[in-house]
Iron ABC transporter ATP-binding protein (Thermococcus barossii), 260 residues
Amino acid sequence: MRAVRVRNLHFTYNGSEVLRGVELEIEEGEFVVILGPNGAGKSTLLKCVGGILNCGAVEVFGRPVMDYSRDELARVIAYVPQRCEPGFMTVFDTVLLGRRPYMGLRPSRRDVETVRRVLRMMGISHLALKPTNKLSGGELQKVSIARALAQEPRILLMDEPTNNLDIKSQLEVMETARKFAEDGGTSIVVMHDVNLALRFARRFVFMKDGVVVADGGREILKPGLFEDVYGVRVRIEEVGGIPVVVPLSHLGLAEELKQV
Ligand SMILES: Nc1ncnc2c1ncn2[C@@H]1O[C@H](COP(=O)(O)OP(=O)(O)OP(=O)(O)O)[C@@H](O)[C@H]1O
């Protein structure tokens, strides 16, 4: 079943167009990573898919995303933002907020069990009673992901979820996204670390200047793509059967240095 369909999406902030005719179709069960230079429009696209920005061109499970009610959408899509704001609430209560679309007046046994389960899954059960404004950046990031998982969505959107995380936690978050997709959900992750993406995801969408410039599996990852998209010369080697992208030089750097 098609989870997401984006058709000819244009998006403008204050008169400046940052998405220029984006086309994208994602099937249920896929794990897709969106890559590209700073300012390419990746986060804007993710927010359009999540119904956070008002865009007419996005369908989720065959229905315009803007037609879903707030609670309906929260049961279908969970969005983990690039930055999350800490507060006075405990970790447990913050993650419990993810159950809001399912809850009556008070949390059910199932709501509480779900929160316990995702705290365990993210390895943060020991932080349950700590206020989120007393957490490290990485811990806060894990709380934000736990809250999204507590929503039990069908689509998980994460914007640079591995920022702030140590290597082990980066691998765990990527494994969580992969498992989510293997279990039938759809993971769409914006990130910069192409090598981490390569280890876990099957499909890569590259954006530049508000358009999708490449979309496919490992076979699209050729040195020429990195020159076109980032202006960086790379070599691609295999380590343990996994391709690794090694940056060699920034194409414009020598010229820029000459002018200094
Ligand atoms: N709220 C906003 N108001 C105005 N312009 C914005 C806003 N958010 C983003 N932009 C602009 O839109 C463009 C695309 O931004 P976006 O955050 O989608 O890019 P990105 O590819 O996610 O970048 P990065 O990798 O740096 O996070 C940028 O030029 C940015 O300055």
